[in-house]
Amino acid sequence: MTAETDIKSASSKMQATTVWTLVLGFAADPLARWSWPDSDQYLTIMPQFVKACGGRAFEHGTAYVTGGVRAAALWLPPGVGQDEEALDAIMARSLRPEITEAMAQIRLGMAEHHPPEPHWYLPLIAADPNWVGHGLGRLLMEHALKRCDWEGTTAYLESSNPENVPFYERHGFKVIGEIQHGDSPSLTPMLRTAH
After folding, report:
1. Start and end of every N-acetyltransferase domain (predicted)?
2. Span 40-66, mean pLDDT?
3. Would you kindly state where each structural domain of the chain is located, as residue ranges?
């Protein structure tokens, strides 16, 4: 592998760049943009959302980047959850009143689909849109799933973009349901048992 495709654990110095790579990568995501349709609001809220969803990966050395931080994946190890308190606060202050109930139901659906056994959770993976199609997401996914297989641990995610479901299926994830409420885009929970 070249230096451009090495997988690294993002250091604290790389955290801001890693977060912004994910913000760029989700800029056209159906659920993210349904939540925050105005670009100024999206650019203000999404970095906070990324940190609340997956920021604990930085503390555990499981925030992975590749291609000079052109792509990133935040994996939460077994027993490590999202910062629900921060997510509650973000939702309370940023969502339009007409979607508040739908988002509450989506979050309940997410909690219901998480496997009960210890598992690795992937809340966020994305590439800078300039670098989509260069295989960086595949490298990040293969890197993390090797660890899941070595440990014999299940991996879980929710795809917020239906176009990405085949990518996850190629890596062994299976659709286990659908989460949708009101006029929200659908979220697809997916599970992968260790190979």
Report:
1. 109-195
2. 97
3. 3-192
- What pTM was estimated for this model as a whole? 0.95
- The residue behind tokens 């592998």 is 1
Report the chain's mean pLDDT, rounded to a whole number.
94
| HEC secondary structure over the chain | CCHHHCCEECCHHHHHHHHHHHHHHCCCCHHHHHHCCCHHHHHHHHHHHHHHHHCHHHHCCCEEEECCCCEEEEEECCCCCCCHHHHHHHHHHHCCHHHHHHHHHHHHHHHHHCCCCCEEEEEEEEECHHHCCCCHHHHHHHHHHHHHHHHCCEEEEEECCHHHHHHHHHCCCEECCCECCCCCCCEEEEEECCC
Give me Rg for the CA atoms of the chain.
Answer: 16
What are the residues facing 175 on neighbouring strands?
A: 190
Q: Quick check: 159 pLDDT over 90?
A: yes
Answer whether 54's CB lies under 8 Å from 63's CB.
Answer: yes
Topology of domain 3-192 in CATH is Aminopeptidase (3.40.630)
Q: What are the tens digits of pLDDT across the range 137-147?
A: 999 999 999 99
